[in-house]
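Exercise 7. Predict the joint structure of the components listed below.
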Amino acid sequence: MSLVTRCAVRAGSYHDSVVLMQLQRALAGLPGVMDAGVVMATPVNRELLAAGGLEVGEAGPDDLLVSVKAESEAAAAEALSRVDALLKVRGAESMGRGAESMGKFRPRSLASALKQLPEARWVSISIPGRYASAVAEEALDAGRNVFLYSDNVPIDREVALKRKAREKGLLVMGPDCGTAVLGGVGFGFANRVRRGDIGLVGASGTGLQAIMSHIHKLGGGISQAIGTGGRDLSAEVGGMTAIQGLDLLRRDPETRVIVLVAKPPAPEVARHLLALARSAGKPVVVHFLGAPLPGRRLGNVSFAATLSEAAELAVQLGDSPEAGDPIEGPVHGLFSGGTLAYEAMHGLSAFLSPEEYNILDLGADEFTVGRLHPMIDLDLRIRKLRQEAGGIVLLDVVLGEGAHADPAGELAPVISEIDATVVVIVIGTDEDPQGLAVQIETLEKAGARVFRTVSEAMEWIFLHRKSTEENLLPVSIQGPVINIGLETFHASLLAQGASSVQVDWRPPAGGNEKLAGILARMKG
Amino acid sequence: MNIDQANRTAVERMMSARPMLTGLAKALDVLPGMRENLILHAGPPIEWERMSGPLRGAVIGALIFEGLAKDEAEAVALVERGEVDFEPCHHHSAVGPMAGVTSASMMVYVVEDSTHGGRSFSNLNEGYGKVLRYGAFSDEVIRKLRWMNGTMAPALAQAVGDGIDLKALLSEALHMGDEGHNRNKAGSLLFLKQLAPRLSDPDVLRFLGDNPLSVLNPVMAACKAMADAAHGIEGSTIVSTMARNGTDFGIRVSGLGGRWFTAPATPPDGLYFPGFSSADANPDIGDSTITETAGIGAFAMAAAPAIVTFIGGTPQDAVHATLEMYEITAAEHDHFTIPALGFRGTPVGIDLRKVVELGITPRVNTGIAHKKAGVGQVGAGLVRPPMEVFEEALVAFAERYGFDEKEA
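Solution:
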């Protein structure tokens, strides 16, 4: 077989030498082509090609010289005919690839992902369990909250991670946390639900999904859904994440009703959570799967027997007719009863900072020098009411023998006159001489909110009072995400419009346990 | 012991080093431990029997240049009688591209670190074509070396004047499309600009101007000065040397003294000049990896979009190359910055721990030598050191500092 050498010249066509080398490689790869040379036709280059047995033709230093050695005339001609197309393809290809890969660098470590997306607040981890806790710890050390989907994380590691998170004011959802909705963005497995005012804390991923979907169907919406991981409510872990979650939702201004769902917790954990729920200052619906109900309702806490009932109760409570315009401002208490004043102060102090409330017991000795007890003499309260324009005013009206004959009648004109939200606690019975129903009606007509117990009044205030503080939450409950592990989670975060950076994670030291052990000890 | 703290110290020293080119001198007069029968070479230590073609060729050329042999046969006989010693440039504060061969009477650049006081050295760059560093030793090659040594070097020594700030030169070159290893076009012109006012010989001016690599050797000596400043920090896992001799790839680590960790060098992956292919390529060779060690070269690839075709083809690939190197480095350079990355500092200070943990070896931009002595450069491309050298170094570090298993 005799080889054919042929060449072509493109006069005055300058190309970078690297472009030419690539073209040469492409030509040499064509069928039937044995060798190819693509050069700017300088004397040196022509010499080089000639020495390699390639044809060099007539060309000068500013000309592009393309020369091929092929098995046949046809193969040589075919190769030369492709030159311009190949040069063009190269240009287009590099432009396309440039645009496509723009900004798509996949970091390999959390540290460099955080450099790429420094505003990330959450790290979502779904790598094999034996590697997951080290990565979760790294995230906490970097001051980020953790959504830990991975399972098979030892329980002592879970406890250590959650302790560290608590100390740092961060949240670890999981391990084995399947679901969360944070600031309208679903993590892990999550249904698309409308945003709303129902916040959930759950140790059961599918439980959360079932309740959220049902709430959505009933027309309600979700503020936040916080997963805790299946073992959180065990005695060892002590419900650390659930407690943080309840506390978060209690103080989250967007959340008006809280749902707590879990398999039956360890008894001491259940007690702790219920105590916290009682003092949440918002309605809380509790569903411990399969556990007997302690009652239908204890104060602000309602118990649901099923997942769907939990959703229904939450929606009802959220829709309660009491919902109206939010109230705002500091709380001023003008009490005649010392114990009532004390109970109100105790309740308020759990949720408000000291500057936000001021409770006066006008029955205390300092106020009664030279005047009658405020249960009989309303003058001081009326004067103070006029002074306290704005904010929320909390009054007690104590009926019965010995008390003023018509306290409501005396208070009503002032209440309707002042620019404040007035909340009145009426203590008395339907047999009292003042007439309980008439007293309440008079107060309500004047624009007051009337309750029969301090705790009901507190509950109403908490439910309706607009927080004066922004960013009450100790952990940022939303924000961009670093995703380490399942790429579908990354894709779904992006599809929901959230920012996410995917880490191209691999086991440390390529899975070599000896080296990984050394590295772990070096981190010490 | 705090490794992070030790690494910060090492990298801080690397970045604060200020290499100044202060003159040129005869190797025998300035290189510590230099002797007349000693030939320095690139990379980790190697004996004649294991040397690759280009390194052997360069050794033969150096022996002829020194007048110790009159031809190849005599040179080989001399070596085989054991009358010639071989040691790495790195053992004598020096570096050299490709074969790196430096002999007693060759003139070398003298670089002084005005911050820490160290000195480093590099031989002269011969340009492209038939050159000693690729193993060529024909009469023409030796003639050129003699002219460089006898005519150019004294002229340069005089032209250097009060000294040339190589760190400033490199910072500027990085903003002009160089990455300091495979592309030194801008840096070489800046170098010529600084020398030209005191040069009168048109041959010297033309030689420097025609050689887009003329500044490579001083740059390498500068990088050596920076890397040496970071070497010897107790407890530091920063890589302070990467070098290849054409047979082995070797590294040294700041906290592990002079010990080399080596493994067989692999041929680079790259593009080839007309008439050559990967079948012609010698395994990776040269001390020029000192540039990557000091945080430029392939680490600064995002600064050099003009040569991206060597590594994939698009400017974005170049950016990704640099982004990848941030994964395994301890810091971002205070002085070397990359406009395309918003003037972010180049990734600097290779951390052994990160290399092993993430499984990412340093990128190295390199020229490719023909495996036969004297043919010269056949292409250019990318190479990565073998992972084993980092793994071995990590194990040695664990033994030295008590992080090995018996400790646990």
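Discussion. The first helix of chain B runs from residue 3 to 16.
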